[in-house]
Double-strand break repair protein
Amino acid sequence: MSREDLSDTLRILVATDCHLGYMEKDEIRRHDSFKAFQEICSIAEDKQVDFLLLGGDLFHENKPSRTTLVKAIEILRRHCLNDKPVHFQVVSDQTVNFQNAFGHVNYEDPHFNVGLPVFSIHGNHDDPAGVDNLSAIDILSACNLVNYFGKMNLGGSGVGQISLYPILMRKGSTTVALYGLGNIRDERLNRMFQTPHAVQWMRPEVQEGCDVSDWFNILVLHQNRVKSNPKNAISEHFLPRFLDFIVWGHEHECLIDPQEVSGMGFHITQPGSSVATSLIDGESKPKHVLLLEIKGNQYRPTKIPLTSVRPFEYTEIVLKDEDDIDPNDQNSILEHLDKVVRDLIEKASKKAVNRSDIQLPLVRIKVDYSGFMTINPQRFGQKYVGKVANPQDILIFSKASKKGQREGTIDDSERLRPEELNQQNIEALVAESNLKMEILPVNDLDVALQNFVNKDDKLAFYSCVQYNLQETRGKLAKDSDAQKFEEDDLILKVGECLEERLKDRSTRPSGSSQFLSTGLTSENLTKRSSGIANASFSDDEDTTQISGSVPATRGRRGSSTGTSRGRAKAPTRGRGRGKASSAMKQTTLDGSLGLRQSQRSASASFKSASTIVEDDVDSPSSEEAEPEDLNQVDSSSEEEENTRGKGRKRQATTKRGRGRGTVTSKRGRKNESSSSLHRLLSSKDEDEDEDDEDIEKKLNRSQPRVTRNYGALRR
């Protein structure tokens, strides 16, 4: 091409679905995605393109590891930062195109020398998530390495509303309008395209010497193409006819040659993935990237093969169609499969371009074993360790169903592709059940659910509720008669506020996802939740109301000084919220049962009482304790017991065998189920020289009450 042609030709290298970080924990395949991306950037540099265009799923994980981020930044920095001039201009409003803190294309930053601009949208793997609605690509954008566009705010009511503003580029006499649409859930985007005015396409303004028809319109999107379920995909016929060229991401099969859509007037290219992420027939086809040259309203595509991609061989066999296999002889099946694997390995080695760097191939055999027995795929693959890259899953067994035989026209890659789960969203559930949401908007709950499930956003529902609470409080505060509302009127008023808020959102450009940016952080949430936990898990107030006795409350207050140390010492059961008494050891239910056996001999009862004191495990308390048992305890003995608990907290661990202990519940309440046992436990410390006969009498008096309450516990 002459210099004049070069000055008017915009050269773009197109790639999609790089999936950086895929299989990063596999010793053999961990570097595959980075090698392919390194080659893509090298091709862009060698071909002297104006910019690199990525169609989503740059990262395989929504939260990529530090290793993946570092390697991605190293590759971009090595190829994108240099002194080469950039020959095109961005003439649109860049603050609208690039929604970051800087609001301009990266090569215009005076502090960076960007020689290879990279433009990218997000895919379904690296889409925005979290409180601030950030993607992993936002990290690269903040580093000034990538121009991140196509990030949408789903405003409006119902399914939402989006507006697509193009990035307007000019190089000489060539003008290009680049539209970007990051991944949106296919079901929702499908409904949006079928809803009038839900998707708005902004066209360039008419300027002097440049009409609207002079712009070459490109769309980059990352969605499912039409397959078995039309509602779970986007049809090409949903797109406007003024588009000239479409880069379709998300589909991994490489269909790089542009295909014209009948009746629409535009062409679609599907570059596919640069690394095989699923072992199906569609992924085994050679990987390419596309060099797109645009001059005026004409374009020229050139496909460039990727040579660093790991070779992948795929085949299918039907055992009943093979003549040399005996259905009753498993060895004949193994021999035939071994022969097929060896042939595929040899075929992959012949395709290797660079003999010095031959990679272990990926091999996948789909075996139809109808009428035959299967073999263990892992055991079969052990003999190919060091010969193939995936020895653990070389074989996949399947049976030909009658339905599959009737529908033989389905494409192989379509049939082998794992079907997505039939997910149900909140909007559909509300519509099916004829429900009316009175406090929280449906689309807010839907977004929160998707963020919680798909993006691991643990604050999604909390942020949704807090945002709507703030909005509702703001609406109610504007009413001068807010203090005069009755309870029923307030509920109606909240419902009216919801309708008003939905109407207000329909007039605002960014509505339904505003709760994602409420400024909530995990640190603030931790502080709030810890305060809630400290304040709400105490049952003292409820216990006070139930008992209704002043001495019991005094005793509880008096023993509160030893609560923290008692918690640390005494192991608890159940939820672990029981409070240990300060001066008394805790008894177990098994120890209480030991008292029943003490009727046989006085010495046995004395030993069981001492055993009770030594056990430190909480016992469940009876909810059927009688109130008169509480009232029988004298307040003077309670106060005396509390003062003794404060002064003799440490001595309780050494003085054993005296039967001093309380039965406490899991929720921190004292067990008032046995009044006679309580009298024994509240006896004075000065009676240390009491003879064995008195102890036997006290224990024998306490037995019927303990036995009866244990029966109540069992009921």
Remarks:
- The first strand starts at residue 10 and ends at 15.
- The first helix runs from residue 3 to 8.
